[in-house]
Amino acid sequence: VAEVTDDNGHVRRLAKENIRFTLEGEGEIIGDASINANPRAVEWGSAPILVRSTMKPGKIKIHAEVQFPGTHAPTPADLEIESVAYQGTMMMGTKTAKSATSSSVQNASSATSSSSHEFTPEQKAKMLKEVEDQQADFGINN
Q: What domains can you pick out in the chain, each with its CATH number?
């Protein structure tokens, strides 16, 4: 979590900067700009990110800086953490979580697109009647 602070170390709760994170080493940031994960908008003084380690233990260096630097902008900061090897049994084997997730998302999206079909007018009328009955039971009737 990157926190925007003043000169005395107090968190600036009303800060509105965007923080861009970069990572080096045995890890990766989960998400990107498409889900507003990186750069991340500061909310209530904080900008959290999720970091996933690789299968290999080692150092992870995280660098945080404002997206639009300036004279009065917060200064960049660095954090270095060390990941350790997992001692248990992996359910996924040697496959990385990122590749497994992307392939499962692709499989789910292709299954959805292949199973989509048009409803007949009778099916639509039946579904509409069911919703109408549910709303009447709930007390929403016109």
A: 2-87 (2.60.40.10), 89-137 (no CATH)
Six-digit token pair at 93?
A: 């084997």
For residue 11, what is the DSSP state?
Answer: B
Question: Is pTM beyond 0.70 here?
Answer: no
pLDDT digit string (tens) for 93-127? 655 555 544 444 444 444 444 455 788 999 999 98
Mind spelling out the 3-state secondary structure of 128-139?
HHHHHHHHHHHC
Tokens of residue 129, six digits: 């009647």
Q: Please tell me the distance from the alpha carbon of residue 115 to that of residue 124, in angstroms, as a whole number.
A: 17
Candidates 77, 82, 83; CA nearest to 2 is 77
- The secondary element (H helix, E strand) that includes residue 60 is strand 58-66
